[in-house]
Amino acid sequence: MVKIGEDRAERLDIIPARSQVIVTVRPRYACCRCDAGITQAATPNWLIEGGLPTEGTLAHVAVSKYADHLPLYRQCQIYSRGGVDLDRSTLASWCGTAAYHLAPVVDRMLTHLKRSDRLFMPSRQIAAQSPAG
């Protein structure tokens, strides 16, 4: 038999997002022969010191809220279905933290835009401001 071709079929499948807990273990060491004290590795840098969310979690909550227009109460329901109980005020605090850390990026973008010769905006915004006629 000689292969003369093939048929291919594509199907879309959705693999739901899953939450996982990342555990950071920092062992402590003491020297038995001297009085050097106790040594331990430094903690990794977190956006919320000692907090639950990773940077990816903060980004996901912010993008879901602002880009996908998914209110925080709905995000709480989605997380709850996945077995993670979060309060809406917690998600709001996380959005505030993300906004605080993104402020320098926004300021830099604004500086760059102000140096531009021309700025464009979608025509639907202009049409919404023009008088009806």
Q: What proportion strand? A: under 5%
* Whole-angstrom Rg: 25 Å
Helix content: 40-55%
Q: Characterize the biggest β-sheet.
A: 2 strands, antiparallel
How do the strands line up in the largest sheet? 1-2
The dominant shape is: extended
Give a description of the structure.
The protein has 133 residues and is mainly α. The chain contains four helices and two strands, in the order ββαααα. It has helices at residues 55-66, 72-81, 88-115, 123-129, and strands at 28-30, 38-40. Strands 1-2 form a two-stranded antiparallel ribbon. It is extended, with a radius of gyration of 25 Å.
Give a nutshell description of this structure.
The chain has helices at residues 55-66, 72-81, 88-115, 123-129; strands spanning 28-30, 38-40. The longest helix is centred in the C-terminal third of the chain and has 28 residues, at 88-115.
Task: Explain the layout of strands and helices.
Layout: E1 28-30, E2 38-40, H1 55-66, H2 72-81, H3 88-115, H4 123-129
Antiparallel strand pairs: 1-2
Top keywords for this entry?
133 residues, mainly alpha, two-stranded antiparallel ribbon, 4 helices, 2 strands, 43% helix, 5% strand
